[in-house]
Amino acid sequence: MATVARCAPLPAAQSALVADPQFQQSVQWSHTLVQKILLSIPETHKSCIHTETLRLNSTENAKLQLMASSIGIRSAPALRVVSEDFTVETGLTRMSEGLQLHRDLLASVSPRLTNTGKVDELMGDIKDLVVHVNKMLKMVRTEVTAQPTPTPVNLQMPGEYEVQVAAHLTLVQLQTFGQDMVRSLRSMEQNEDKEADG
């Protein structure tokens, strides 16, 4: 069941930035790539997670948060729809950071998995999405700022179970982050419905 979220109009300065056709094209490409990533997560999960108790859309996943902490899986940055309090630039910066985090997490766990084909494809899609997000970020940046150096990912996975949990929780978190990205990107879209309402 799909729900349509109505977004508040963007502030004038942000509205002019996102109205740029190149920006909108990147938003559309990013949206398509996020959808591709979201659709590939269940198959990726099935291909590399063999512990029966680790299910993608399980209510039990919340109980694994303590283990996520001990393994070293950092939380993704929080995303919201664009507003006066949450700018396009902030949203894109957090998207870029979150995507890079998930790519690094997958890269850390991948060598310990027996079947990495789908994981490699997923990392490739994330890399492509980072390119689009960073392209949009470059368009909206008001001043040149140095990109923060990402904190290296150092996962503590002494045994096979920890490897399975790390891969599982990374995919669960990526799925949630991707869904948040869809909502945030939707708030950056300029479409006829919004223009007709405005």
What is the gist of this entry?
The chain contains seven helices and no strands. The protein is an all-alpha fold and 198 residues long. It has a single domain, classed as Growth Hormone, Chain: A (Up-down Bundle).
Describe the structure.
This protein is mainly alpha-helical and 198 residues long. It has a single domain (12-197), classed as Growth Hormone, Chain: A (Up-down Bundle), CATH 1.20.1250. Helices cover 61% and strands 0% of the residues. The protein is built from seven helices and no strands. The protein has helices at 12-18, 21-48, 65-71, 88-109, 117-140, 160-186, 192-197. Helix 2 runs antiparallel to helix 5, helix 4 runs antiparallel to helix 5 (117-140) and helix 4 packs antiparallel against helix 6 (160-186). The longest helix is centred in the first third of the chain and has 28 residues, at 21-48. The chain starts with 11 loop residues before the first helix and ends with a helix. The model is unreliable at 1-8 and 192-198 (pLDDT under 50).
